[in-house]
Amino acid sequence: MSHELISPNNWITKAGGHLSRDGKIRLPIRAILLPMHHASTSIEQYKEEKDKPQTMDIVGKMQLIQNIGLNVRAADKAYFNMWSSAIIDYNINNSEVVKMFGGCKNCLKSSLSPNSLREQVSPKLKQLSDLNNTKIIHTMDSGGMIKESDIHIVFEYYDEFLSLNLMSFPEVNTLPKKKCNKCKG
């Protein structure tokens, strides 16, 4: 008997989720499950409505786009915040590691911040995250309407986030060292 994981827009499988040989379900990191489920459900709804001409009103369309953008951002932030915290917590009291960052624990924290890790692992994800914040989230926050030409951003952001292996945190061998505000002078 063959089993498969079923999720909206097949996102769990795209994120690396699978059934192990011993029949156990292997899911992506727990913190992203709910927001990615919501984003994926909105993508399916958007596609269904898009295929039915004249049925989706502009407000409904913008609501789905905003929901996708907000939820992918929530999953992205949760993933990178967890990863950053884990690395910092593990290394913050290791004097040899702190020395590599100029002997400053705040420089270590800056170098291993969620934004630094995101930019190192996927510069495109960082760029799409910034565009999503500017063109989608902040536009809606300020009472504006998302431009039709910017809608693609949420879909690209979603796909780029899912291109990471969301089952664990990647290994980073090199990371640019960033100075904290105090050490910048």
Describe what you observe in this structure.
With 185 residues, the protein is mainly alpha-helical. The chain has one domain. It has 9 helices and 2 strands, in the order H-E-E-H-H-H-H-H-H-H-H. It has helices at residues 11-14, 33-50, 58-91, 95-100, 105-111, 114-121, 123-141, 152-162, 181-184; strands spanning 18-19, 25-26. It has a two-stranded antiparallel sheet. A hairpin with a 5-residue loop joins strand 1 (18-19) and strand 2. The longest helix is centred in the middle third of the chain and has 34 residues, at 58-91. It is flat and about 60 Å long.
Query: With helices defined by DSSP (H or I, 4 residues minimum), what is the helix count?
Result: 9
Task: Work out the number of β strands.
Answer: 2
Overall pLDDT level = 91
Rg calc? 19 Å
SSE pattern: HEEHHHHHHHH
Unreliable residue runs: none
Shape: flat
**How would you sum up the major sheet?**
2 strands, antiparallel
The domain count comes to 1
Largest beta sheet: what is the strand line-up?
1-2
End-to-end separation: 64 Å
Q: Please bin the fraction of helical residues.
A: 55-70%
**Proportion of beta-strand residues:** under 5%
Structural class: mainly alpha
